[in-house]
Specification:
This protein has about 230 residues and is α/β, with parallel strands linked by helices. The chain has seven helices and eleven strands. It has one domain: Spore Coat Polysaccharide Biosynthesis Protein SpsA, Chain A (Alpha-Beta Complex).
């Protein structure tokens, strides 16, 4: 069974549920698990102060993935605002043991100051690299990523993978972390994993974003009903 850990934000449960549904529906022997900050705090595993620059509740807790998975094998992490259009096993099949992690090496430099539902848009090198990651948990460098370290180091140290050398970071194609409204599906190969990084159709201001109908179709498959204005996240 291959494991996918998905970031979880408490007031966006439907976003997580649709992401999970899209992955498990199309990917045999793949199981999704939420990374819930409050649960980790209640257990004393995560105790750092709230990240005021983080736009989600999993901006830092995503880096507990190696510990949560027991430092064994290859696992995947992704943000909650993704939608699988294909079989995630195809992504796992790209795993190369010479790398500690593998990700899409975006050159993402937004000019807006806000995103999602009014959250601050932050700028930093390697932005969005950590939003979809294949982790090689048996690589010795990743043994460093303990709960103690995640609670202590700077967010940039984590998001920029600063415990790794450049050659230890493998690259996967942007199809597997396709930034909606940033990448053009007409000039790129067909996306396999959409990422509504600035906001998806579950937010009022993004109802007509690219691929909005794909997300709504998945919602209908999951719930048996159409997505309406009453379902929007406030």
């Amino acid at each position: 069974m291959r494991k996918v850990f998905i970031g979880y934000t408490s007031y966006q449960d439907v976003v997580y549920q649709v992401a999970k549904h899209s992955i498990e529906r199309q990917s045999e022997d793949v199981k999704c698990y939420p990374i819930i900050q409050q649960a980790l705090r209640d257990l004393g595993i995560y105790y750092r102060p709230v990240d005021t620059n983080g736009s989600t509740e999993f901006s830092i807790t995503r880096f507990l993935t190696p510990w949560l998975a027991g430092y064994k094998g290859w696992v995947m992490f992704c943000d909650n605002d993704v939608l699988a259009l294909g079989d995630i096993n195809e992504l796992f099949d790209l795993a190369d043991d010479k790398y500690a992690i593998m990700c899409v090496k975006h050159s993402h430099k937004p000019t807006e100051t806000v995103k999602l539902d009014g959250q601050k848009q932050t700028q930093y090198p390697r932005k969005n690299w950590s939003s979809v990651v294949l982790w090689n948990l048996e690589h010795p460098k990743n043994k460093q990523i303990t709960p103690e370290l995640v609670n202590e180091v700077s967010p940039l140290y984590l998001h920029r993978f600063m415990w790794l050398e450049d050659h230890e970071i493998g690259e996967i194609t942007r199809d597997w972390n396709f930034l909606v409204d940033w990448y053009d599906s007409k000039t790129n190969s067909k996306p396999k994993l959409l990422h509504y990084t600035d906001g998806g159709p579950y937010f009022k201001n993004y109802q007509n974003c690219d691929f909005s109908e794909n997300w709504k179709a998945e919602f209908k498959l999951m719930t048996g009903k159409e997505f309406t204005d009453s379902d929007l996240i406030d």
